[in-house]
Amino acid sequence: MRKTLIAGNWKMNLDLEEGMDLIQSLVNQITPDDLSKCDVLVCPQMPLIAPLSDIAGSIKLGAQDCGAANAGAFTGDTSPSLLASLGCDYVIVGHSERRVGRLEDSGLIRSKTAAAHASGLTAIVCVGESENERDEGKAELVVASQLAASIPPGSNPDNLVVAYEPVWAIGTGKTASEAEVQEMHETIRDQLVDLLGDASKIRILYGGSVKADNAVALLALKDVDGALVGGAALKPDSFLPIIRAAG
Ligand code: PEP
Fold first, then answer.
1. Which structural domain, as residue segments, surrounds residue 210?
2. pLDDT tens-digit profile of 4-46?
3. Which residue, among 56, 53, 48, has the nearest Cα to 26 in the 3D structure?
């Protein structure tokens, strides 16, 4: 049994007041029944993590990235162990906005994932193909090579979540079809078995324009264990229905 995870990636949005208002509104409206069906996670900008952790209650907190080491001369990086001490349980690594926009390769993502694990964080490792790669029939190959190179030894269901996020579906309003999503998630699970031995308990999230009106169908797919949500996570009215689509 894999408990559904609904994760909100706030990206570089929301100031302190807006972030506090949003988390307070979620805390007020998310019920014990909701939390019996899914874990709820929000990933704000780094400086919001400490103030949000004071009021987040049962909502989990995650960072959107971390450094590949725990301490040292790495100007601008954030230590995974600092994140853990501030109340983070999760960290997103390898989001396409970092793979493509910041030229991060899978080797670096693997080091970040290992550093996250060493600090007790669960890494949400993102993989996904571009529109061209899908059109050329290379989607599975691209995702398989990202996955193999991004996951360090010692990954297990407690410290690893995989997020399949087709790049062409992020922030575009386009969503992969249910058949495309299920097929890719099944392929990812098979590959995780090859890499780690057992993948029956590892959660695989779908991300890419998840909204209230497609969440029920996507979350009902056999190998979809949750959602990584960008735009729709920025308002309670759009995030809560996705939480309620779980279970
Ligand atoms: C994301 O940022 O990971 C994402 C999936 O964004 P959106 O839901 O806006 O497509």
1. 4-68+76-243
2. 999 999 999 999 999 999 999 999 999 999 999 999 999 999 9
3. 56
Q: Is 226 in the pocket of ligand 1 (CB under 6 A)?
A: no
CATH of the domain at 193: 3.20.20.70
pLDDT, position 175:
87
Q: Decide whether any atom of ligand 1 lies within 6 Å of the 165 Cβ.
A: yes
pTM: 0.97
The question of whether 95 is a catalytic residue gets the answer yes
Q: Which residues pair with 226 in a beta bridge?
A: 5
Ligand 1 atom showing the smallest separation from residue 231 Cα: 9
The string of pLDDT tens digits covering residues 47-63 is 999 999 999 999 999 99
Calculate how far, in angstroms, residue 207's C-alpha sits from the geometric centre of ligand 1.
6
133 catalytic? Reply is no
Closest CA to 178 of 130, 136, 214: 214
Could you tell me the CA-to-CA distances from 163 to 5, 56, 222 in Å, in that order? 11, 23, 15
Q: Using 70 as the pLDDT threshold, list the residues of the chain that sit under it.
A: none
Reported residue count of the chain is 247
Domain count, the chain: 1
Alpha helices in 119-172 (DSSP H): 131-135, 139-150
Q: Would you state the pLDDT for residue 198? A: 86
Ligand 1 neighbour 231 (Cβ under 6 A): yes
Q: Ligand 1 centroid to 169 CA: how many Å?
A: 8
Is the Cβ atom of 208 under 6 angstroms away from ligand 1? yes
